[in-house]
Amino acid sequence: xxxxxxNIPFAIRQFSPDQLKEALRKMHLIRLFEExxxxxxxxxxxxxxxxxxxxxxxxxxxxxxxxxxxxKITSTHRGHGHCxxxxxxxxxxxxxxxxxxxxxxxxxxxxMHIADVKTGNxxxxxxxxxxxxIAVGAALTAKRLGRDDVTIxxxxxxxxxxxxxxxxxxxxAIWKLPVIFVCENNRYGMSTPATYATAVKNIAERAxxxxxxxxxxxxxxxxxxxxxLHEAIARARAGDGPSLVENLTYRWRGHSKSDRNRYRTKxxxxxxMSRDPIARFRDELIAHGILDAxxxxxxxxxxxxxxxxxxxxxxxxxxxxxxxxxxxxxAEEAA
Amino acid sequence: MNxxxxxxxxxxxxxxxxxAIREAxxxxxQRDPAVVLMGEDIGTYGGAFQVTGDLIDRFGPDRVMxxxxxxxxxxxVAVGAALTGLKPIFxxxxxxxxxxxxxxxxxxxxxxxxxxxxxxxxPVVFRxxxxxxxxxxxxxxxxxxxxxxxxxxxxxxxxxTPAEAKGMLLAALEDPDPVIVFEHKLLYKMxxxxxxGWYTTPIGKAAVVRPGKDLTIVASAIMVHRALxxxxxxxxxxxxxxxxxxxxxxxxxxxxxxxxxxxTGRLLCVYEGVKTLGMGAxxxxxxxxxxAFDYLDAPIQRLGGAEAPIPYNPDLERAAVPQSPDIxxxxxxxAKGEV
Lengths: 335, 339
Known about the structure:
The complex is a heterodimer. Chain A has helices at 2-7, 10-14, 17-42, 57-63, 80-85, 90-97, 131-144, 163-174, 194-197, 222-237, 266-273, 277-287, 293-316, and strands spanning 72-74, 151-156, 179-185, 188-189, 192-193, 214-218, 243-248. Chain A is globular. The longest helix of chain A has 26 residues, at 17-42. A five-stranded parallel beta sheet of chain A has the order 1-2-3-7-6, sandwiched between helices. A two-stranded antiparallel ribbon of chain A has the order 4-5. Chain A is of the alpha/beta class. In chain A, helix 3 packs antiparallel against helix 12. In chain B, strands 3-2-4-5-7-6-12 form a seven-stranded mixed beta sheet, with helices on both faces. Chain B has twelve helices and 14 strands. In chain B, strand 6, helix 7 (162-174) and strand 7 form a beta-alpha-beta unit. The two termini of chain B are 31 Å apart. By secondary structure, chain B is α/β, with parallel strands linked by helices. In chain B, helix 1 (17-31) packs parallel to helix 7, helix 3 (71-83) packs parallel to helix 4 (102-109) and helix 8 (222-236) packs across helix 12. At the A-B interface, helix 7 and helix 8 of A face helix 3, helix 4 and helix 5 of B.
C-alpha cells in the first residue's frame, strides 16, 4: 500500500483535480502569452525588449500552487510566468506590454515591472537580485503585524552572486522570517554559465551558510517543485523561518531579444526542449486519470482563446496621455 | 539659535538636535504600531551618534531593530516593509554608507510608485548623518544632497535646527513617498527650543531666516548657521544679507528663492557638497531661467565644497568646505559689486 501511495506524484496526492487542471491551464497560458508577446514584437506592436521564460512554466506555477492573494511574491526580469501563476490577467499584462493605460502599470513599467500589489504580486524587477531584500521586507511586515502570509522570492542563478542575495538570506534567517527564496537555475546568467560563475555545485548549498534548509529539485517536474514548496511554506507559516529552493530548469529562448545564442549549442537546447514541463505535466495528469486527451486539448484551447482576447484588449486600449508623463512620481500626482 | 519655528502658544522645551529627532521617533513609535526603526547599532548602543538613545528600552527590539552591517540589504528590507504596510525609519550610520545601498534607494524606492503606475507606495524614511567637521576623513564626511536630489521620486530634506529636525522627520513620516533626511553631524549637539507634541515642518518650503535687502544667501543645514554668522558681521558694515534656509533640497522651493532675488538683486549659494554640479548649479540655473534674472545686479556666486574628497588634516578639512569667514568675504564682494 505504502509503495503505491509513494508512486503517486506529490501534486496528484495533494491537490484536487480542479486545482491540477487550473495549474495546467496556467502553464499553457504562460507559454502562449510569451509566444504571443514574441509574435507581437515581431509585428512591431511591442517595443523595447523582453525576457521569455518558455521552458520554465512548471517552476512558476508549481511554486505558487499553495499561495493566496494575501501571500506575496517578488519576481525577476524574466517574470511573466510568475505573474500569471500568481493570478494576473493576461489582457492587462498584454496592455502593459503594449504600453497602454489599461496595463497593470498604466504603461509606465512594461514587461520588467509588471505587478499587482492588491493580489500580493509585488512586482517583477529589472535589477538582478533587486527583489531579494524587498521580499525579506514583506516577510518582516507579515511577522511584525502578526499576519500569517508568506513571501515567495523568485530570482535566477545570476542573482545568487549578488551581494543582495547574501544580505537578504542572512537577515531572513536571523529574524526567522516567513520567506521562501526560489532560485530558478536556468543555467545561464545572460551568457555566463552558472557552473562558471558560482563556486558551489548546487546553489541550494548556499543555504547552509545561512542556517536554513536548501533543496535542489528538478524544476521541470511540477510535483517535485510543488513538494519542495509545500515543505518550505509549512515551515515559514509555522514561524520556523526561511528556506532556499533551487528549481533546475532551462530557458528555451535567448536571454532577451538581442541574444544570438552563441554560448550554447543547438543540441543542448533540443535536449532540454525534449523535457518540456508542460507536456510532462499533461501526460502525468492523463496517466493518473485526472484528464483525458480531449480534456487536455480543451484546456489548451481555452488558454489560446484567453491570449487572443488579451491581445485584442491590449490593441484596443488607449495609450496614456503624453501630458501625464510625470504622473505617479509622487502620491499627490497620482490622484 | 534663530527662531525659525515660532509657535508662540505651544509649549516648548530646550533640547538638542539629536534629542529632537529622538523625540520625533518616540512620538511616531507611540502613535503608529506600523512604525519601526531599523539600522546598525541603533538598539542597546543607541546609534553611532546616540540619536536613537534608549528607544529600544521603551519600545523593544521588535520596533527598534538592529540590522547586521548590510546597508544594501537593510535598506531593501525597509523598502519591502514600506511597500507592504510598515513605516520604517532606516538609519544609515553615515550618509557615506548609503553608497552601498544606492540600488535599493535609487532603483527601487524612488521608482516603484512610478513603475507600478501609482498602484504601490513606499513610505520609507532614510535618515543619514551627513557632512564634514569631525575629522573622520573622506569616507565618513561627504554631503550627498545633490546625488539624491537628482532622482525623481525621492524627497530630500536638510533640517538646520532642533525644531526643524523634529518637524521635518514627522513630515517625512507622514509622507507616502520615500524621504531622505540629511542630519548634519555637527548639529547633533546644537540646542534649541522645540515645540511639544506632534507637528510638521512642511517639506518643500524654504524659510527666510534673516530678512535683508542687499543680497540673498541661500544655504541649508549647517551652512545656514555659518551664513547667519556672516550676515550678522556684515550688518555691522551696513550690508543687509537676506538668508534663506532651504530646508528641502527636493522639491526645491522656487517661489521663495525667486522672490528674494527679485528683492535683493544678488545671489550667493552656499553649500557643503562639492561645488561642481551641486546645489548651487541648480539654484543658479533656477534664477537664470526665471523672471528674477532681469533683476540681477551682479553675477550669481557659488560657494561650495572643494574639488577633493574631505581630507583628514583639520586645517585642510576646514578649508574643504565653506566657513563663515568665506561666506562673509564673498558676500561682501558681491554686495559691493566687486565680482
